[in-house]
Amino acid sequence: MSNDVIPPKERKSQKSKSKDKKAVTGETVKASGEGDGPQDESVQGDEERKERKKRKKERKLKAAEEASTSIDPEAPGESEKKKKKKKKSTESELLAQDGAMAVDSELSSMEKEKKKKKRKRDTEEEKLEGVEHPASEAKKEKKKRRKESPEENTPSTSAGTSSTSDATPSIGTSLVPSATPSEAAAFLAKHSITIHTPPNVPGTIPVLSFNQLDIPADLRSSFEGFTEPTPIQACTWPPALQGRDVVGIAETGSGKTLAFGIPALSRLISKSKYSTSSKQSKASTVSVLVVAPTRELAIQTHDTLSALGAPFGIASVAVFGGVPKEPQVRMLKNANKGKDGLTTRIIVGTPGRILDLMQEGVCDLSGVDYLVLDEADRMLDKGFENDIRNIISSTKPATERQTMMFSATWPEAVRRLASTFQQNPTRVTVGSDDLTANSRVEQSVEVFDDSRSKDSRLLALLRSLSHKKTTTTGASDARILIFALYKKEASRVEDMLRRQGYSVGALHGDMTQNARMDTLEKFKNGTTGLMVATDVAARGLDIPNVGAVINYTFPLTIEDYIHRIGRTGRGGRSGKSITFFTGDLHERSLAGELARVLREGGFDYEGLKKFPMTIKKKEHSAYGAFFRDDIPVPKGPTKIVF
């Protein structure tokens, strides 16, 4: 029917019915004249969201049912119970996902509220900063200490360490701010120091003050009487305390014992803090080995390290020839028993005796991870190279060991030894690679036409030096060291001086070791003011307050002369040396070299000009003049493949 045929009353009734239907089915959004406000709109929006969620759930359920049926649409023997179980599991999974979404939304709202509260607290605390109670400050400090304590308890390791094991903690060197680059450059230039640093290793900044060393307080007692580190100490301590290998080349009397002694003891102290002593009860406790060329130098180094290590329970054993082995064997066997609260951690000795004890199975060096070769050039000159190589091979590998090598010169033999047993060492040279005389020692030469006039001249010289025939214990600058060439000559000069009423002692190879030690001790404490010695006392001995050195007979080499006069002028003090020169026998060929040393030091050498000034070619102690020191020796094989 068309609208023209329907009467107007029926049209109104049809329109009202259609409106009612739309309201019932929810198709219309607005009701006529009612619910036009914003509250009705929000209610309707919530209802629409709920309906959408229901539709999504229904779609997911349908998709899950279709997936389950599509996997096995005609599975024979599948019961209806299994299908119901699958439906329930899918429904529970969907509900769990919805619950997780709701929990996440709740958590996010909770976090927002917490942040707001925190901001309010911060603003309140800022306002009340001036009225903060000391109790709250103490609590904050305690919290900071708790946070920092685990970091302090863990040992730190240096990035540039190549020759130490991972278990060994490194020790820092910065307690007071280190020197600035300009200060470091001025220090290196002043002392003519050259530092060769391996690639990929940070440069070395010298330690200009003892306060810049981060070491235990008891170790600082060794610095008493000194104002600042010596040049070799200032430049070798930083790399040594970081665990790197070091080669130190410096004149005699430059403080090399503390240069390797302080890092060794710092290493032992730090290891004792972090190691478990119960596991090491059966194993050898020795981890530091110092090899020296002479007995006297070994004893001196042993005394220094023992005095420094005693407050920390660290003991040292000195092994050397000339005395019975039994006491040394007993000390090595009882090394880990901790007698008197001390545990033997250090061995100091000469190459021959160390090798003998190793072959007897008494000296165990398998735990040595800190090795020192003191006066390396002297040991090689004396023919100890094979013994040194055997000793080093008994210690830990180079990758797990820190090796320190000190020498007065840098010949090819020492270079070859360093390249074989060290890992990327830092080389510190004070002065030059060649042997140079101590610049603080005033040198003079007296030329004699007749060697028989030496005795009378020696007595006159002692009177001119105002040396008293009897000295008091500990007298300052009262000691005079007289060097002879042969043992019998030393004994004769000693007898002559004793007949003249002088308090004198002798030190040479024909004496027993106990007699040598007794003479040296009396000379050190000032009981005897004069000591006549052969070249056994020329190397490494640190005798305090030696005012002058007299060379009664010139030595066989110019190197021995430089080491002799180095017994005075030690520790930054000045000294004096007087040399008797006759030109007899071997002396005539050494006149040119002696004149060169005096000329370089700025001293007079006019009396030597009557002798030939030619400098003789350097000879090797074993190979003579046919040995060439300028040809680099190729590095040997690192492993043998069968």
UniProtKB/TrEMBL annotation:
Name the domain of life.
Answer: Eukaryota
Where is region (Disordered) located? 1-177
> What positions does the domain Helicase ATP-binding occupy?
237-428
Q: Does the keyword Nuclease apply?
A: no
In this chain, composition skew of type Low complexity spans: 152-170
Q: Where is the composition biased (Basic residues)?
A: 51-60
The EC designation for this entry is 3.6.4.13
State the UniProt keywords alphabetically.
ATP-binding, Helicase, Hydrolase, Nucleotide-binding, Nucleus, Ribosome biogenesis, rRNA processing
Any one Gene Ontology molecular-function term assigned to this protein's record: RNA helicase activity
Its annotated function is as follows: ATP-dependent RNA helicase required for 60S ribosomal subunit synthesis. Involved in efficient pre-rRNA processing, predominantly at site A3, which is necessary for the normal formation of 25S and 5.8S rRNAs.
Q: State the protein's name.
A: RNA helicase
Q: Which organism is it from?
A: Collybia nuda
